[in-house]
Write a structure and sequence with these properties.
single chain, alpha+beta, 4 strands, globular, 4-stranded antiparallel β-sheet, 196 residues, 15% strand
Length: 196
């Protein structure tokens, strides 16, 4: 059985896509980011939690503050990318559930009244949304450079608050010279899928 998605789109989103390590200086506009969000917001999350929150780092001052919290090898990439996004999980996502899950507004208190439960749910579901976001960046014809080599607590204190947990930093833009490392191997189907 073949996939319904056009092969060129399959390549753009998956087969030819890589983590970008260099970028051109072409700006990434707010309109592009809005279009990316307007596409990927439809990706599913449990209870339609939608806990992902995105902080766009645009000003030189904010960029400098962020670079200081990146692992040494990631600093040049984050310093040079046209746009950088901090993706985080909102641990108070449940406050939005009466609007986002209107057919069962009591889910807010029935399932998510305890902070540890919310933190686990927020992390898992925001990570799903982060993956959608990366694919959305690719769908916009841009490259993404997601990174977890950073001081998470430092980024939280610098840019967020106690109700938000940073997940990753994503450099965004048009790929520059030598943007790609060689493709790393992937596991074969029979190494991943088991039928019981």
């Amino acid at each position: 059985m073949s996939l319904v998605l056009d092969p060129a789109a399959q390549d753009l989103l998956f087969r030819e896509a890589r983590t970008a390590n260099t970028f051109t200086d072409e700006p990434v506009t707010d309109e592009q980011v809005q279009a990316i969000y307007d596409l990927v917001k439809y990706g599913p999350t449990a209870f339609n939690q939608s806990p992902l929150r995105i902080t766009l780092v645009r000003s030189p001052e904010a960029r400098e503050r962020l670079v200081a919290h990146m692992a040494e090898g990631n600093r040049p990439k984050t310093a040079a990318a046209p746009l950088v996004a901090i993706l985080c999980a909102d641990n108070e996502f449940h406050e939005e559930l009466p609007e986002l899950f209107p057919h069962f507004p009591a889910a807010k208190d029935a399932f998510f009244s305890e902070r540890p439960v919310r933190e686990g749910a927020a992390t898992l579901n925001a990570a799903l949304q982060a993956a959608y976001f990366i694919v959305g960046v690719r769908a916009a014809g841009l490259a993404a450079g997601p990174m977890t080599g950073l001081d998470f607590e430092g980024v939280r204190k610098e840019f967020l608050d106690d109700d938000h947990t940073p997940l990753m930093v994503v450099n965004i833009g048009r790929p520059g010279p030598d943007a790609w490392f060689p493709r790393s191997p992937r596991l074969a189907y029979d190494q991943v899928v088991t039928t019981v």
